[in-house]
Amino acid sequence: MNISIDTLQNEIIEEFELFDDWMDKYEHIVEMGKNLPVINTEMKTDEHLIDGCQSKVWLAARLEDGKVHFTADSDAIITKGIVSLLIRVLSNHSPAEILNTDLYMIDRIGLATHLSPTRSNGLLSMINKMKSYAKAFIH
Amino acid sequence: MKLNNKILLPDASEWERYRNDFPILKKRINGYPLVYLDNAATSQKPRQVIQTIVDYYETLNANVHRGVHTLSQISTDAFEQARIKAQAFINAESHREIIFTKGTSNAINLVAYSFSRAFLSPGDEVLVSALEHHSNIVPWQIVTKERGAHLRILPMNEKGELLIGQFSNLISDKTKIIAISHVSNSLGTVNPISELTRIARQHGIPVLIDGAQAVPHLKVDVQALDCDFYCFSGHKMLGPTGIGILFGKEEWLNKMPPFEGGGEMIQSVNYNDSTYNELPFKFEAGTPHIEGALGLATAIDYLLHIGMDSIHQREMFLYKLALNRLSDLPGFKLVGSASDKSPVLSFLIDGLHPYDVGVLLDKQGVAVRTGHHCTQPVMDFMQIPGTIRASFSFYNNEDDVLQLEAALKKAIQILS
């Protein structure tokens, strides 16, 4: 049985509760960035690019046995860490599950400040892009 | 006060007193004292400017240039006094040459649209430099495209200095206007404006200067610079947002059509035609940003009280101190090393993305700007995605520099 998105979110919230210092939290994000399922170089095209103002993020998705699998990369390591968090939670789930998810973990682990729609790391654009892939797989 | 290079420089305790005039600098961000080094984006405001805005609404508020009632006359007087302050601040010849705008971008757009309507024909050229902010590229791009004219670019070298030697070759009888920044916002280069205007003058071509990054730091004299237009924003020089100045020589402003229509800018209106008001009102449609103009006047008083020469020396001292401290950090690379610079420290740390560094500096209370700083062509030329930019004001101090250094060390440690 597949682990639900919310279980994965709760896991991440617990993980972050271990850190009482912002430095440890960001060190953890940087660490996760290094474990990101990296997108193939030939997929680093404009089609897969989320062009935030500051860092570049490439994000691709494929459907396998009814489950969406994401890969990504970024030129900034914190952005890589954040997108790897999203992938850890959303990858290997059905398009419907992804579309119906409320990503409450973002607020709970203190990343809400990254949600600013402009001039930020484009966290919001990443989530929108992931959901739009899921939507396309339904149709 | 100490005598230094014939300028009476305030001593440390006086600078500390000035710093205390800025309430926001007492804030703590993410548990650290705020170190505000994003002055090139906007400056903080002294309580005197804030009080001016409060006083305006508590004691003066009335629309200007219209009412016969006393309050309207008082607010009109205050508004026009602000214009005269701005005129004196940049040494313009007449108050008719001072147009209140929303800011630098708005001032450039006003000139671009109005000038091109009267003077730009198919095949003509507008010359800008490779150092420009998007605000001094895009308006010209729009109007040249509209009129079938072309945009030419004065190139720079890898230090961020304009190649002045090529200036004459880029000018021809097709060149109708030249638009260049006084100081670069992303690299801090101070451009040799007088040299450029001297050459432009020989060809009879008007020159517009984007002075947004110059007026907060340098003494600006538009007559000495001999430019035809000079644009700047209030909010970068201790004033409120939404107010700026367009200086334009009368001979040009008289020949240019209005930019926007509305109240204030007309003499008489009927359904067939309107006649326009005299300068400067011809270019000020609608109710102006009255408290903004008053706040700007207070900001000018504040700057002049300290003295632009003292401010310049203080800021360059802080800039050099920061450059000196950061230069020793592993992988530090200065971006923009022009011989004449303003207190803008743009840099990179080898192997690190500016965004990552910016996030971790913010976590430690240090506000810098990261990214392309609205100068994408400059970053493309340097072949970098952006920089980390620490820009200084006189109200910063040595502790700010040390906190920046410590925070940067920690960021490098986490990211490496």
Q: Could you describe the 3D structure shown?
A:
The complex is a heterodimer of chains A (about 140) and B (about 425). With about 140 residues, chain A is α+β, with helices and mostly antiparallel strands. Chain A has one domain (about 5-140): Sufe protein. Chain: A. Chain A has six helices and three strands. Chain A has helices at about 5-15, 20-35, 75-90, 95-100, 105-110, 125-139, and strands at about 50, 55-65, 65-75. Chain A has a three-stranded antiparallel sheet with strand order 1-2-3, covered by helices on one side. In chain A, strand 2 (about 55-65) and strand 3 form a beta hairpin. In chain A, helix 1 (about 5-15) crosses helix 3, helix 2 packs across helix 3 and helix 3 packs parallel to helix 6 (about 125-140). Chain A is globular. Chain B folds into two domains: about 1-45 and about 305-415, Aspartate Aminotransferase, domain 1, CATH 3.90.1150; about 50-305, Aspartate Aminotransferase, domain 2. Chain B has 14 helices and 19 strands. Chain B has helices at about 10-20, 45-60, 70-90, 105-120, 140-145, 165-170, 195-205, 220-225, 250-255, 290-305, 310-325, 355-360, 375-380, 400-415; strands spanning about 1-5, 5-10, 30, 30-35, 35, 100, 125-130, 150-155, 175-180, 205-210, 230-235, 245-250, 265-270, 275, 330-335, 345-350, 365, 370, 385-390. In chain B, strand 7, helix 5 (about 140-145) and strand 8 (about 150-155) form a beta-alpha-beta unit. In chain B, helix 3 packs across helix 10. The model of chain B has no long low-confidence stretch (mean pLDDT about 95). Chains A and B meet through helix 2 and helix 3 of A and helix 12 and helix 14 of B.
